[in-house]
Amino acid sequence: MGDMLSQAEIDALLSGTLNLGEDIGNDNTGEKVLTSEEIDALGEIGNISMGTSATTLYMLLGHKVTITTPKVSVKTWEELSKQYPEPYVAVKIKYTDGIMGDNLLIIKLHDVRIITDLMMGGTGQVDDSVEITELHLSAISEAMNQMIGSAATSLSSMFHKRVEISPPESLLVHFAEDIEKIRFDTKQEVVVVAFSLQVGNLIDSSMMQLLPIDFAKEMVGNLIETQIGSSRELKQPKTEQTEETVVYQASQLTHRTIEPQQTNQAPHTAYSAPQQDYHPAQPGMKQPVYNEPPVNVRPAEFQSFDSGTQTFGSQNINLLMDVPLQITVELGRTTKKIKEILEFGQGTIIELDKLSGEPVDILVNGKNIAKGEVVVIDESFGVRITDIIHPSKRL
């Protein structure tokens, strides 16, 4: 029923006063904010970048992720506040290099709870009555950081330049009340890129990406500039030769067509071309051709390596004596899940994989070379070497 026209709209159609294109991208003056070509380009950019984001989210959540082709439209902030009155989580990400602009992702609370539970090793079965906490905001920030990070990598390949983003910031917003918290410019219109998100059998929802008008136009401009550059490269002939190369080839041809000089000597059964000295041809100049007497060629002689090798090595090893190396003493290691790490706090005890009193590992530039015991020197810690690991065992 939502697609049916009301009687007032039917009367407006009959009278020709209804503007069907008003909410597709027109500003207050009646001019289009984005052309249809720009909207198509933004849809293509979103389709490619979100495709890689789906793969990244799959690796993070362990469930199949499907993101459909986005739909691009232009809306005002007032329209957004009326269409999305319930609380949402907004993730603010700024592009800092390559392209400069803001990027705002709007995610439903139910989806945030499921994504957080999956990242913490859960099954995705959540209670919607659970309040959104800092744990949820941190988890969704990391998930969106991974997604937009992979999207930025796709944009780098698409625009042929490096694109980087800033760390994301997540906050709980009500569009009607907190719209000023997420509003990134003073313009009335904003580009809305909407796409559906499916995560296994747990999430079948939608997400929304908000972009400033100027930033959206900048992305389209980068895409068009890259396509123009690529088309110019394809039109250039691959067999193009410089003037210097042509002159050099002409010189070679002259060398091959030299006729033997007439002499009073008896003719030989085979003719050998006289030796000629080669100089690289300069553009616009002809290479001279002249004869020279034969060149005396003999084998090269090198100094023997049998003597002095030991002395050479001992003299040059001193060059490495002043190179600084980093020494690290490792008490032990352990492995924790993301869920356990997020629960760390002041006073948390982490159990390592070594027993008390067991020798510690001594590493030089990350390589384990020795073992030792911890000692106290005055008021500082130290380590006494008790065993040197054999080089064959360091691998």
Structure description:
The chain has 395 residues and is an alpha+beta fold. The longest helix has 26 residues, at 36-61. Residues 12-24, 239-279 and 307-314 have low confidence and may be disordered. It folds into 2 domains: 8-230, 3-Layer(aba) Sandwich (Chemotaxis protein chec); 324-342 and 350-393, Surface presentation of antigens (SPOA) (Roll), CATH 2.30.330.10. It is 35% helix and 22% strand. Strand 3 and strand 4 (101-108) form a beta hairpin. The protein has 10 helices and 12 strands.
Give the topology.
Blueprint: H1 7-15, H2 36-61, E1 65-67, E2 71-76, H3 77-83, E3 87-97, E4 101-108, H4 109-119, H5 134-159, E5 164-165, E6 169-174, H6 175-182, E7 189-199, E8 203-211, H7 213-235, H8 243-256, H9 309-316, E9 327-330, H10 338-342, E10 360-364, E11 367-377, E12 380-388
Antiparallel strand pairs: 1-7, 2-7, 3-4, 3-5, 3-6, 4-8, 7-8, 9-10, 10-11, 11-12
